[in-house]
């Protein structure tokens, strides 16, 4: 069930047989000339909607924003500070806990390492305080790894490339624009550089020219299956 569409009374009813809350988290960031700024939110939220059609789960209203490092100087990227992201997600977990929920899936459409590290740190802080809860934290790219392998999509394809463009082609074809090309960043190893656009100006990390709606459908369906399995495992396991 999508929480944004139900009433307070329906929420109260749903709690009787719904044990898990999914919190979808996206980002607002440059995704090349061809994909929308909210790509990371759209992909993960649409997957959550597919899950909610198949099993009893509460999908929280999504968080559009995340922490974006590499694309920060590119036009349209809006990045949260790590402390802000942590405080916000911690606050949301506390509110769901106060409403009686103890199983949480924090699913991110944005796969940035620092962003994910903050989400993991948030979950760590939360379970330390609430030992009766179970929390799953993952990003879409990590979760899709076995499917990417099956489809022969290389590991170097990670952002606005083949898999991500395929998902947007499948979920929101009207939002895919012209101008895609293959590109990869050239960041110097281990260096923290301020002028990131010098090393990565396109916002593309992979090959979007190989993307298709058919591949997007396979990716979406397989990821839905993977997550339903994870949700069932978490719900069946005792605290
Ligand atoms: Zn993305």
UniProtKB/TrEMBL annotation:
Pfam families: Creatininase (PF02633). One of its GO terms (biological process) is riboflavin biosynthetic process. Its cofactor is Zn(2+). InterPro entries: Creatininase-like_sf (IPR024087), Creatininase/forma_Hydrolase (IPR003785). GO terms for molecular function: hydrolase activity, acting on carbon-nitrogen (but not peptide) bonds, in linear amides; metal ion binding. It comes from the Bacteria. Keywords: Hydrolase, Metal-binding, Zinc. PANTHER family: 2-AMINO-5-FORMYLAMINO-6-RIBOSYLAMINOPYRIMIDIN-4(3H)-ONE 5'-MONOPHOSPHATE DEFORMYLASE (PTHR35005:SF1), 3-DEHYDRO-SCYLLO-INOSOSE HYDROLASE (PTHR35005). Belongs to the creatininase superfamily. This is Creatininase. It comes from Thermodesulfobacterium geofontis (strain OPF15). The lineage of its organism: Bacteria, Pseudomonadati, Thermodesulfobacteriota, Thermodesulfobacteria, Thermodesulfobacteriales.
């Amino acid at each position: 069930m999508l929480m944004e569409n139900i009433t307070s009374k329906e929420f109260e009813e749903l709690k009787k047989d719904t044990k898990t809350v999914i919190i979808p988290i996206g980002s607002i960031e440059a995704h090349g000339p061809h994909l929308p700024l909210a790509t990371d939110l759209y992909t993960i939220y649409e997957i959550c909607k597919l899950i909610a059609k198949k099993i009893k789960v509460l999908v929280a209203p999504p968080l559009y924003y995340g922490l974006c490092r590499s694309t920060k100087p590119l036009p349209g990227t809006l990045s949260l500070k790590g402390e802000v992201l942590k405080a916000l997600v911690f606050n949301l977990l506390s509110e769901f806990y106060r409403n009686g929920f103890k199983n949480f899936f924090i699913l991110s459409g944005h796969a940035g390492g620092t962003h994910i590290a903050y989400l993991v740190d948030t979950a760590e802080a939360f379970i330390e305080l609430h030992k009766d809860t179970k929390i799953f934290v993952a990003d879409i790219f990590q979760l899709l790894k076995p499917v990417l392998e099956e489809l022969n999509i290389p590991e170097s394809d990670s952002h606005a490339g083949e898999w991500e463009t395929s998902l947007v082609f499948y979920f929101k074809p009207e939002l895919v624009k012209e101008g895609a090309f293959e590109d990869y960043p050239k960041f110097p190893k281990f260096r923290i550089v301020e002028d990131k656009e010098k090393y990565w100006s396109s916002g593309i990390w992979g090959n979007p020219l190989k993307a298709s709606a058919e591949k997007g459908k396979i990716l979406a369906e397989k990821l839905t299956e993977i997550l339903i399995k994870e949700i069932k495992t978490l719900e069946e396991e005792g605290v």
